[in-house]
Amino acid sequence: MRLITLLLFVVLLAIQYPLWLGKGGWLRVWELNKQVGEQTARNEQLKRRNAKLEGEVLDLQDGTGAVEERARYELGMVKDGEVFIQFVAPAPKVSATPPLPPPPATKPGSGGH
């Protein structure tokens, strides 16, 4: 009876091994699902980028608005008869960094060191 139990246990382990650790086992499926999720996220990011680039290409092919915008902002160009005016905001009066702590006070007669 003991031999039959041991034999059944070994058969059970032999059946379970491919299920958990084999080529199509649970661990491999879990890892592949994780990779699919990462690739799906990357694909969505690239689809958004491609849509943006496609819109920009269509705008460059069809109209002059995108060309003018690029010429103005990237190259600093202006049209004939236009005047370029740039407003510069004043610097903030309060510093964003905290003040330095005061230096340590020296006792009289200690010689400063």
From TrEMBL:
InterPro entries: Cell_div_FtsB, FtsL/DivIC. It is a single-pass type II membrane protein. PANTHER family: CELL DIVISION PROTEIN FTSB. GO terms for biological process: FtsZ-dependent cytokinesis. Keywords: Cell cycle, Cell division, Cell inner membrane, Cell membrane, Coiled coil, Membrane, Transmembrane, Transmembrane helix. The gene is ftsB. Its main location: membrane. NCBIfam families: PRK00888.1. It is found in: Cell inner membrane. The keyword Glycoprotein does not apply. The keyword Protein transport does not apply. GO terms for cellular component: cell division site; cell septum; plasma membrane. Signal peptide: none annotated. Belongs to the FtsB family. This is Cell division protein FtsB. It comes from the Bacteria. Essential cell division protein. May link together the upstream cell division proteins, which are predominantly cytoplasmic, with the downstream cell division proteins, which are predominantly periplasmic. Residues 29-63 form a coiled coil. Residues 93-113 are annotated as: Disordered. Part of a complex composed of FtsB, FtsL and FtsQ. Residues 22-113 are periplasmic. Residues 1-3 are cytoplasmic. It comes from Cupriavidus gilardii.
